[in-house]
Fold this protein.
Amino acid sequence: MAFGSRAAGKHRGSSRLSRKTAGFAGVAALATTGVVGTLAAPAFAASDKGPSMEDTGLNAVVTAEDVAGQIEAQADSQRAAAEAAALKAQAEADAKARAAEARQKAEQKAKAEREAAERAAREEERKRLNTFVSPLAGSYVSTQYRAGGGMWSSGSHTGIDFHADEGSVVRAVGVGTVVEAGWGGAYGNNVVIRHADGTYTQYGHLNSLSVSVGQQVTPGQQIGLSGSTGNSSGPHLHFEARTGAKYGSDIDPIAYLRSHGVSL
C-alpha cells in the first residue's frame, strides 16, 4: 500500500525552492552579460525578506530591459548633443570664415580705393607741374616782342612787357629751378628760372624778390613783386623766354607760352 508517499503527478507544481533556484539561474545568466550584474542584488534582498513577493526570475529580466532602454536613450541623447555641438562649432567656424572673408574684401576694397586716390593725386600733381601759367594773373601784353626803339640796347625788345601796378604778384610760369635771383643791370631786380625742358624764363624790373638761387619752384608760385627797377619807364613786368641762361638766346615769349597751353 502506498500510504507513506505519493507519486508526483503530471500537473504537480514545482516547489518554492525549485522556483527560487530558477530565478537565481536567470539572474546569473543576465549578470554574465555585464548589463545588470549590479542590479540583481536588490532582487535577492527582496526575496530574502519574506514570502510577500514570489521570485519568478521575470523581475530581473524586466529590469535589464529597462536599463538597456535607458542606456540606449542616454546614448541617443549623447549622440544628439554631440551632433548639436558639431553643428554649432561648424556654424561658428562658417561665421568666422565669412567674417574674415568680408574683412579681407573690405580691406582689399579700401586698398584699391586708396591706391586709386593716390594715382589720381599723382596724376593731378603731374598735370599741375606740367601746366604753365601766365606770369601775371589778369594782365595783358603792353609791349610786343621785337618792338623797336631806343630804349633797348639791341635796338629791339627781347621780351614782352606785361601791364602791372607796383607790387603785383609775379609768378613762375612753370616748374623749374631758380638759377639767378638779384640785380641784373638794365633788368633791375630779376629772376631767371631753368625749366625741365631746358628752356629759361626771365622776370625783370621787380620791386622785390621772393626766391633765391637753387630753389625749386612750381607753376603759379610767387617769385617776387612787380616794380620799376633798372632801365624802366614805369611799373611793369619784363618777361623773356630763352633757350639759354644768358642774354641773346631769347625766343618769342608769346609763342613759348602758347605752346605750353597759356592763352594770351
